[in-house]
Amino acid sequence: MANLPIVQFEKKIVETVDQNPVVVIIGETGSGKSTQLSQMLHRKGYTNSGIVSVTQPRRVAAVSVSRRVAQELGVRLGEEVGYAIRFEDRTSERTQIKYLTDGVLLRESLSNPELNQYSVIILDEAHERSLNTDILLGLMKRLVRRRASNLKVLITSATLDGEKVSKFFSDCPLLTVPGKLFPVEIFYSKERPISYLESSLKTAMEKLVSKLEDKVRSLEEGSCMDAIILPLHGSLPPEMQVRAFSPPPPNCRRFIVATNIAETSLTVDGVVYVIDSGYVKQRQYNPATGMYSLDVVQISKVQANQRAGRAGRTRPGKCYRLYPSRVYHDDFLDVTVPEIQRSSLAGSVLYLKSLDLPDIDILKFDFLDPPSTESLEDALKQLYLIDAIDENGSITSIGRTMAELPLEPSLSRTLIEANEYGCLSQALTVAAMLSAETNLLPGRSKNNEKKRKYPPLELPDGSGFGDHIQLLQIYECWDENDYDIGWCKDYDLQKRRQSYRNLRKALSIGFASQLAERMRHHNGFRTLGFKPQLVQVHPSSVLKPDDDGLYPNYVVYHELIATSRPYMRNVCAVERQWVIPILEKLDKLDVRKLSGGGLGHVEEITEGNKSDLLKKEAVIVTAPEEQESKIQAARERFLARKGKK
DNA sequence: GAGCACTGC
User: Fold this and answer.
1) Which residues contact residue A367 at a Cβ distance below 8 angstroms, ignoring those fewer than 6 apart?
2) Which residue of A16, A329, A470, A516 has the fewest CB atoms within a 10 Å radius of its CB?
């Protein structure tokens, strides 16, 4: 600890914090900022008036850093020094220094908006610009004004964006603490390679791994060290991931082929050489279409430096950049496009609405990098369609309940509705199956089928209603058979009679903003919550055309993903009469009214009559003859309005 | 008839 660079700056840091409510610290890798800042402020007495807290974007970091600090202070973890992450709170009444994920701090501020238990809040790794960190930055700016006398906020960031953060906080002081990295020599290539292995990163890694193996095998005996070639990415089973971390046998070199998981999340010790492709695969959301895509994009300078830094942790290293220095300097952005500018914001906007911040217009919330108006309006529209906010933008009681649930809004809305229909347990299963990347489903690739010794097990088929129902059936099967592999034999007969009607209705309400209508003369679907666009049921779906070759008329989908074509992933058949209220809501939607708190309109639409309204919408659909014309009328009004735009 | 970066409550 004594030889950490930051220690020499203690006096300066503490003085600056004493005199200013907000301080930005530029702490380079290896500076010791994550473990030392909290201890300095503790020594200065800041833990006498409250807890000193440090946020981290990842759970593992919160746990490992707090463990380290407890060790350095010679206390038991969970007492004076503790941490809080999802599912695990290791703090006590004696806790003075607390590490937590930024998601946990956001949750805490729901029940205690002033965060009075804290005397200091340190937002660590703010340069990573996670969605939660960005929301916290905006909230901190408000909070220091309210608690100017007794709250200190520290933000740690990278060289390239420190100025900007300081500006955001009214030109607060900015301190730089050097890191402790061994020198890394940078080599640029003259030009970019013409062909990259494959657009799919995983395929590329597999090929790269086997190419490396071939190459090593073709070398003459004794012409180089022995080599172990190891892949490292998130979808690798943990025991395979561990292999990348064990030191190689003597006279043997490790080649680790990694995704950006090795950029920040994991640190492999002993890395001396880094080869940087200059690219990253990034998920993006398009608010105009509601569509996600996974694109290969250029990295930022911060990312490039982070990658290079991985080579100099234990001794001097070298970094080979597969791009010219001109590209680095002229083409790369300084910092990564913040997540807030490439995600769906429904959840975050609902969270902000639920805080009841006085006089807040979501469209004018003070973000470090504001998301586009379009993105915010998309979020508002989605929230309105699932009854989380009313037509004046006020949060509803349903919305409040939703905000408390740690789920994406469409799923939390589904759960609330399912509870009304008495199918909560089923809905919980579906929500859990959708939230976890299901591994109960066997791979369906031709490759796997060829490799399998035995014919594939008969899996439940969703009984013609689609993927959500299949997920539920699979889980039920699994559960009923004591998680036994030989389950599912006479399963189809038992379950096919169910229509899962209540559950599907709950899903139709939760996913009202993710609704699609089949085209009249073919099996393509048109999205209804966004400007009409043609999308298809993803080929991996269990929902198949019926005996007449047709899909259901209406489906809700879990997400839109643009790959080779626009697809709906995870679709559920819904009934026409459930769609009417949604179309009617879309029809009277005025997105301009949704951004404010609806002040002045609160008396007109109370929580009480809001739920009455919902009931009425459900009653409207009971007269069968009227249904057809109502659907028609609502659809035509809706489509006409869209046509005008 | 597809394609699997990474986090988090």
Assistant:
1) A134, A137, A138, A340
2) A329
CATH number at residue A71: 3.40.50.300
* A130 CB closer than 7 A to any strand B atom: yes
Q: Is the CB of A563 under 7 A from strand B?
A: yes
Question: Is A124 domain-assigned?
Answer: yes
Q: Kindly give, in sequence order, each residue whose CB lies less than 8 Å from that of residue A334, ignoring residues fewer than 6 positions away.
A: A160, A161, A300, A301, A302
pLDDT digits (tens, 9 = 90+) for A74-120: 999 999 999 999 888 999 999 999 999 999 999 999 888 899 999 99
Closest nucleotide to A101 by C1' from CA: B8
Say whether both A154 and A205 belong to one domain: no
| Residues A88 and A113 grouped into a single domain | yes
CA distance linking residue A193 with residue A197, whole number of Å: 10
Q: Do A196 and A67 share a domain, yes or no?
A: no
> Which amino acid residue lies closest to nucleotide B4, measuring CA to C1'?
A202
Three-state SS annotation for A551-578: CCCEEEEEEEEECCCEEEEEEEEECHHH
A145/A241 same-domain check: no
Closest residue to B8 (CA, C1′): A103
Q: pLDDT, tens digit, for every residue of A172-215?
A: 999 998 887 788 899 888 777 655 554 345 555 667 777 777 77
d(CA A292, CA A562): 6
Nucleotide nearest to A343 (CA to C1'): B7
Residue closest to B3 C1′ by Cα = A200
Q: Which residue has the tokens 């609704």?
A: A515
Does one domain contain both A128 and A201? no
Domain membership flag for residue A9: yes
Strand B positions with any atom < 7 Å from protein CB? 1-9
A565 touches strand B (CB under 7 A): yes
pTM (2 d.p.): 0.80
Same domain, A212 and A150: no
Measured in angstroms, what separates residue A157's CA from nucleotide B5's C1'? Answer: 23
Residue with tokens 């003859």: A625
A569 Cβ nearer than 7 Å to chain B strand: no
Select from A120, A151, A177 the last residue of a domain.
A177
Bridge partners of A298?
A: A279
Count structural domains, chain A.
2
Query: Which of A150, A177, A204 marks a domain boundary?
Result: A177
3-state secondary structure of A243: helix
Structural domain contains residue A577: no
**A545 CB less than 7 Å from any atom of strand B:** no
